[in-house]
Amino acid sequence: MRAEASVLHLDLDAFFAAVEQRDKPSLRGKPVVVGGVGGRGVVSTASYEARVYGVRSAMSTREARSRCPHAAFLSGRFHAYRETSRQVMGLLRAASPLVEPLSLDEAFVDLAHAGLPDLSVETVTAFAEDLRARVMEATGGLTASVGIGTSKFIAKVASDLRKPDALVVVAPGTERDLLRPMDVRVIPGVGPATAERMRRVGIHTVEQLEAVSEDEMVRLLGNAHGHWLYSLARAEDDRPVVAEREAKSVSVEGTYDTDLTDRKLMESLLTRQANEVAGRLRKGGLSGRTVTIKVRLHDFTTLSRSSTLPSPTDSAATIARLARTLLADLDTTGGVRLLGVGVSGLADWVQEDLFGEAAEEEVEVLPEVEVPHHSRRTWAPGMDVEHAEHGRGWVWGSGRGVVTVRFETASTPPGPVRSFKDDDPDLTPWRPPEPEDEDGT
Prior knowledge:
The protein has 13 helices and 17 strands. The two termini are 47 Å apart. By secondary structure, it is an alpha+beta fold.
């Protein structure tokens, strides 16, 4: 435990939905749900206006629609999320060299390296308020909830206490008083199964967990898990803020509106996914030893199979060949709703051949693939578009040969709605220009 409250956790509030509301003036103050929009979709993020109706992350889109039918259901625009995240992470890294991103919308910051005159509660509070103001200005109005404490655990708990748009600083020495009334599920690693096991022995709160001896905790939950929870129940967490978090795996997956039953089609999809994974590996200068496929059956049963190579590879042909072999061991006759390929055991080198020369990539001709009713539509709700006459806007909805667009951007008032034929040559998807390299090219 640190002597000062010098670990900061920043979490952008309802991030994906907040970006959509920022860029779509007509949706500000209204319920917005971002995620899969099809019948098998899952909610990624819900705005606070939608959460009032019980909509939450990981809920099926079908249930979210039944709870909040008047919400705007959008498919998401990852280019906008990545760019906004880049702006925020840049601010954090300018404040301290030790920034540990956890995802696009949250990160830990080590304030002990931020050059502050001291680490008193007053000083870190003033710093955090200024940081939140700068985040709001840089992102065009997005709010962030911030927690500061003597450890990662306490900082993360603090940032969740008063969301949205809040700052909580836990003064050194008050950590246990904060935790004791809380449900045990506030502790990282206490999921539904562990919480149920604790409930059966009468443990519901952190205070009750704190009263359990370390030996009893290990007996109840196992060696590693027991020691970990014993420490956290006492607010003991000495994990450092790590500036770079290495990728553990690279993967691609797809969900389909119609169950797949054609084995040749599934093999073709895996081959294409393997090529995309290999491309990402090469772009990152990485290779991997373990190839894994993920298959979700028609009844939602999820299966995975893995195969480990003797040395790392970034070969698309090798990854695809292993993926197809792994698929052959599974019974998919009842239908498949999701397929995915991943590579783990990453390294920053590729095995060379016996003569010291890198093996040439085996070129594999990708088969033609036509997936019936795939969930990725041409005109996805929420996507950015541009019309030759009306300018920039976003897709309100589409179907039956018609696409409806609301013409507005983050810098305009709520705009008008127009409908067009879905093959109108004047209507095109809009993407931001690629950022220039450091040398200006």
